[in-house]
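Notes, p. 3: input format for complexes.
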Amino acid sequence: MENSTDRDHDCVRCGKCKALCPTYNETADESMSPRGRLMLLKALEQDNETALAVLQKIFSCMLCGSCDKSCPLGVSVTSHIYEARSNLIQLDKNKKLLSMLVKIVFQHPDLYFKLLRLLQRIGLPKIKNSHNPLRIIDEMGIELAADTLRREGMLYKSSRKRGRVALFLGCSVNYIYPHIGRQLIQTLTAIGYDIVVPSSEVCCGAPHLSVGLKKEAAINAEKNITAFGKLRVEAVISLCPTCTDFLKNIYPNLVGAAMPNVMDISEFILSNSLCDSLTSSAAYKNKKIMFHDPCHSLFKLNLKKEPREILRRSGLTLTEPRERGCCGLAGAFKLLYTDISNSILEKRKDNYSDADLIVTSCPNCIIQLKAGLKDKEIKHIAEMLLPNNS
Ligand code: SF4
Ligand code: SF4
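Output follows (390 residues plus iron/sulfur cluster):
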């Protein structure tokens, strides 16, 4: 989150940021565009009565970051959105309730995700409130894992001595797809890395900040920086681009420091020249594979060619979709704007219709793509890589 006090005055309303804005492209509504949202925020300064209406539009932003990247003047639209959410959330009782829920659940996530899993097994209560997260969990068929990884708090030792790294799992990998983390641990220990998975990792803070909980996001940032700062590792590898963006780019503005040496898995592999040590399963070599770019990889981490290069060098052939774009999930957006989210997902379905297998680097994109493309295999890039013993 850039320090944005006065940056809105830099906006010259050229509209360049609208080109890749998923909510504008879906609705053709100026108030759902980056430029429109900035204008609404300006209007808010003059007329407080419009605040509630403005808040709805501010929450319709997916925080994808494509506008930040495309603005020629460097206006950080997302910084304004984060700031406005934190200032305005008290105005809407449903959104306030949502932020309270995020705060409670992520204070004791082990307890609440365990409880949620139990509820899933006996049948989720059907609460008729469109802001009820259980509705989305149910509709999307999200299954919580029994064997989370973070709680184990382990050091996985390699018999070879190439290096020592830590894994930042993120909540989606930890509570929904821990097998992705386990696969990466297996691969990296086999090629010579000791891996530390600290039990003291907490949520990166993205869910908090997205619902206006700035103070709580900062508390989590401090906890993670302290927890990982003690580990004496050469890199912290993250399996989720939203977490990576937070640890690298948002923490400095929240608490004045980034987490040192954080890398997306692709950056880590390429910067340590590990491609020759990795391969992929023969089972995938004849499949038609497409790579889905998570928004935060493209627009916040500037990673596009890197994952493709790694997959190609592991022996796979990639085909490009006709058109790239957002999966449509975006955390609370899915809950608040389910119809738009589903309609964005429909576009991806069309674009990926020729693929047998879709690979991505974000566990949250996997959740959404799995819900929409039930006939396709969807994998995280970490699941595709095996040690090359040849
Ligand atoms: S935010 Fe940047 S790209 Fe968008 S209208 Fe303003 S100046 Fe143009
Ligand atoms: S972050 Fe994405 S959804 Fe939000 S205004 Fe910018 S381009 Fe649109």
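The pocket of iron/sulfur cluster (ligand 2) is lined by residues 21-23, 34, 37, 61-67, 77-78 (CB under 6 Å).
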